[in-house]
Automatic annotation (TrEMBL):
Keywords, sorted A to Z: ATP-binding, DNA-binding, Nucleotide-binding, Transcription, Transcription regulation
Top-level division of the source organism's lineage: Bacteria
Domain Sigma-54 factor interaction: 340-566
InterPro entries with a match to the protein in the record: AAA+_ATPase, AAA_lid_NorR, GAF, GAF-like_dom_sf, Homeodomain-like_sf, HTH_Fis, P-loop_NTPase, PAS
SMART domains hit by this protein: AAA
Pfam families per record: AAA_lid_14, GAF, HTH_8, Sigma54_activat
Protein name: Sigma-54-dependent Fis family transcriptional regulator
Alphabetical list of SUPFAM superfamilies matching this protein: GAF domain-like, Homeodomain-like, P-loop containing nucleoside triphosphate hydrolases, PYP-like sensor domain (PAS domain)
Xref: CDD domains: AAA, PAS
Amino acid sequence: MQTNSHHVAARTPGSRLREARRQLTTTGEVADGLIDAALRRSWERSRGFGLAPAGRAPGAPHASAAQLARALEQQRELASNARPVMEFLFEQMRDTDSLVILADAQGMLLEAMGDANFADRAQRVALRPGANWHERWRGTNAIGTALADAAPVVVHAGEHYLDRNGFLTCTAAPITGPDGCMLGVLDISGDHRGHHRHALALVRLAVRTVEQKLFDTRHAADLRLRLHLQPEGIGSVAEGLLALSDDGRLIGANAAALAMLGLSRADVGAASIGQLLQLDVTTLMAWCRQPAGAPRTVRRHDGSALWLRVEAGRHVLAASHGSAPAPRPAQARADALAELDTGDPAMHAAVERARRVLDKPISWLLLGASGVGKEVFARALHASGTRRDGPFVAVNCAALPEQLIEAELFGYRPGAFTGASREGAAGRIREAHGGTLLLDEIGDMPLALQARLLRVLQDRQVTPLGGGKPVAVDFRLVCATHRNLRREIEAGRFREDLYYRLNGLTLQLPALHERQDMPHLVAQMLRGIEPGRELRLAPELALAMSRYRWPGNLRQLNSALHTACALLGEHEAQIDWWHLPDDLADELRGISAPEPTVPTVPAMPAGGAADLKAVSARAVSQAMQSCAGNLSEAARRLGISRNTLYRKLRQLPTG
Ligand SMILES: Nc1ncnc2c1ncn2[C@@H]1O[C@H](COP(=O)(O)OP(=O)(O)OP(=O)(O)O)[C@@H](O)[C@H]1O
């Protein structure tokens, strides 16, 4: 995360730059004050490396394919977290003749994505993976200079030290790892005439996003705190991030968090939570066991407030509940299909139809709303058939930009496009050879690719991007979509011929609220989440759940049960309202009973809404008194969520 501002702030006016370059090439020195001080320092460094501005390029090293592959492997975490962000950047820069580049901390270019037109010209100055753009080799340039100054930088046209790079404008910002070390640089390089005014802002935002992703990846198992001065800032690129060990020691922080808490890098590994905030580890752990809800306020030691959200990593949850993480459901089991048949007639029919054609050479089409379990079903089909020992490859067609799905699916030859790895790639279709290929969200596949896919299905062979010999493939195809494909065909967004090829057997999976096997489904999910424990739902809750519409289907139910299990005490066996995420509990309560009922509520007096309110208010006050003001306990006794209790407390008459 960057706190320094970029150094080459204002672009040097052309006349001054020309004069500065004249001085540089004739005397090797540039008069003070003529150009930006940081740029002058960078030119001086470049000269110190023995580089001459004009003439032939010095012999910069270029990594071999094997060296590049090794560097990529070493920076796998960086590259995989940066890639989706680079794709997004590339989308923003489309048609501006530019490249989006990732380099490592030594200045070696790891990946590049960009316009083919511009890529050709960029090749001439070796702006491609494997090349090294450290200042030592190329003089002043955004990648090398951002590394040297550890700050974002724009290097425009003639500000480049080497004349030959004068056609470029480059904008780069260093990427800092969760431990504060510089990992590499993200850069946008393009023709100087097409300079994008917002490139610097875009690059800085992109770098922050990558840094946040790296932080979350690195600290996935730890206790994480997300901080901001305003509640809305949490989850944004401006948030502060802290990671803590189980005993509350600070083990990671981004620059924003360090600034918010007045800390330095040296405090990471040394400070404990009590030194950072007026907060102790027991309270934090208790928050962790509650569903992630609205942000909370905490106080710094000077008394000022910050907003905070706690996220418990895998270790933390397992440690605080003494349970191992739940296994993935229905994966690679011998009769995985039978496990999905938990008593719902529609699901039973789907399973039975599937069984009949399990090993016949036809394609499957799974239809159903998001979260009904299409991917789980596809995995079960794979695990139940004769190809179960082959690979199961899933591709989400909606998650990738068009030009990437093509490479991802069909593979590419070495050098097929800028950024293509030197070895090329086999593609997901070939990876599925001998097994099952799931194309999820097939309804979102772009038309051009639909035509290519159809050809693969007809010819049973794939030709990688960039040409080459077709390769025979043999796989079972399962497609899934939440869209109505017939309607997509009518709207001209889906090819009819492909549709007929895909729907060998169409199975419609029921939405959760249509299912009649809720108790069995819940029991099965609970066994998956807490193996070895006999857990059950409170009867009133089970009833409300069976009436609820579940917009997120099985995914939503599964995640609600995960939360409930996390909140359940060690010796509790019954899941009740207060174990559920607040928003879901409120919705479910809306279905079952509009007002809380407690045994201590006095008999309902005859009267209108005002009386009802009075009864409710009395019940709330009594519960608060008998629990000595403990909100969670009072909410539990009343059978309402804490949020609802807060609301009711605010409505209580004062005095
Ligand atoms: N039979 C099951 N038992 C337990 N959990 C299940 C079951 N089916 C689905 N789930 C849960 O629901 C989640 C969603 O399932 P899945 O990804 O298969 O849905 P989908 O229909 O493919 O969703 P989308 O269309 O959004 O990709 C799974 O991650 C899993 O947690």
